[in-house]
Amino acid sequence: MKFNYLLTPALIGVSVAIVQPQAVALSSTEVSKVAKAMTVLIENQNGSGSGVIIRREGDTYTVLTAKHVIDNPDKYTVITPDDSRYELKYDTVKKMPGVDLAIGQFTSSKTYPVAKLGNSDDISEGATSYVAGFPRPSAAISISIYNFVEGRVTANASKALRDGYALVYSNDTLPGMSGGPVLNDKGELVGIHGRGDTAENYQISDKNPDVIIKTGFNLGIPINTFLRTLPKAEVGTRVGALTQPTPKEPKADDFYIQGGDKYKKGDYKGAIEAYNQAIRLNPQYSYAFNDRGNARYYLGDKQGALKDYNQALKINPEYAFAYYNRGNILYDFDDRRGALADYNQALKLNPNYSSAYNNRGNAHYALGDKQRALADYNQAIKVDPGNAEAYYNRANTRASLGDKQGAITDYNQAIKINPNYVFAYNNRGNTRYDLGDYQGAIADYSQAVKINPNHSSAYNGRGNSRYYLGDKQGAITDYTLALKASPNNAEAYYNRGNARSDLKDLPAAIADYNQAIKLNANYSAAYNGRGNAFYYLGEKQKALADYSQAIKSNTNNSEAYYNRGNVYFDLGNKQGAIADYSQAIKINPNYAYAYNNRGNAKYDINDLQGALTDYNQALKIIPNYTFAYYNRGNVYRNLGDLEGAIADYNKAINIDANYAQAYHNRGLARYDLGEIPASITDLETAANLYKMQGNTAAYQQVLEVIRKRQR
What we know:
This is Tetratricopeptide repeat protein. This protein is of the alpha+beta class.
């Protein structure tokens, strides 16, 4: 049956054909050829969209698209499949009332195929659907390239949503494909695509911000809605065959599409109520079970979500989205292997499922298999070069494997794709911090908190960078902001405690360490930090208790062993000190300070050879270690090697020209060698330095030595 419409001089007429029922299904390749020949790119200076040719009369072609693609008066260009460019005459644009549809015209003497229209009322859940269009340029793909995607119809509602949207399908659409054709398996135009399940509609897991839940909720306007709207559009047409349908009782699809609309608006409770109604009318509605699971997930009912995904898969064992979403739930439940199995199944059903590769990579990473994680992220990017999450996760993996520059390259790409990717800015800041680029790290953390003023980790990271640049007050300000954003951030309390300790505000530092320990009773570093504060306050027994607790919480905390060794040393327990320094060295064989201090303890128990060995090792690790030269000089002096002692004191003084003790002991060694004038000069220098440094006792002691030597 054909419908012929009049064309008046000033108005558009649209002539369409409903294809006869005997049309047979085509292969996806055949449908793609049909779609590509009639799908056009619509460009203007502010963006792009897609459209489909639905009529030709002479040299005038009519294009149907989504209203929002050509909503604003502007200069639009139609680019046809042969890359020819034509002006879309805006004075010919007619917008359909009440629906997100519009038609416009361009002129060409060339021949382009015209769409054949199907009957969208006949489309049912589970039917094959195809969507064609031109995704907008992105960081991954710099030009609009024709895209054709296959999927399934998940709902065809009799009661449309706002703007006429009533057709729902699972096709993976992208921004820029709005206005493109939705085709059935016969290559017939059954709808116009308008809204996609794109990145801005992804919901991020609360346990893993890199896991996304995908609804598959893509919306189109049925072609019959367009045909029924034509008379109202005043476009000079007569439509007698497609009158408004007789009102019917709501069907399952109506409630399903209502649920999807509420879900996208964040009304999860309302979405669940709608899905309940859809399931009541159709107990085998696998899509409704899946999407109700998504809504339950975001209300925190993960067990309920799991039951819904299970039911969806019981009804439809080949439902890739349901496997994917159940995998996300299992991941959140720490069942990484169960999650892997579900992601594997999703990928078996859809080998081009980029998000499933990404999330399987996360599961491999969590299981410690970073190489497999990398392989999955690589595949996710290969399938979808615009997958910012895959670049981000690959960056995290590279950073953990020590490839910091490779990580930064991937964070850059993630940010290029998504300029508001707060986690990528934060982690790029972490990586720059690890590389010692504190200013670069601060810039990244600042951008992260600009995007999300409540990003506690970014404030904490910026505080750390400021700390290492010497801006302790600025660091404290950032740690305080981190705690304002997240009052339970134990790490921020710990870091603020460190900054306050450095500024000698020891009571405030202890208060912060207390809070960190309250939040995390096994926070070894916080016990160690509090121990340091007690030590500087002279409360060595409390310090000893904290260092012991730090070691109990983490037996590999070399700093805690080192610090406890210092307390034992001060309390006269030299053997206890040596044991702790030895343990610190066992954990960290390059711990130069532990070698130096163990040397001091050995020196005090007259193990001079043992002390000498330790000082040698300390200097091997840190060749400019002033104290180690000074201490080794003392050993040489006690062993009678005055020349060796003087050589080490010389090195200590060369490194630190204000090292009073080194001048003092070099003066004594020179006196023992009979170098009296040089000895007196060293002792006088030591006295002056002691006086400048406020060490009155040492100053008086050296003056007395000088008086005795000058007699």
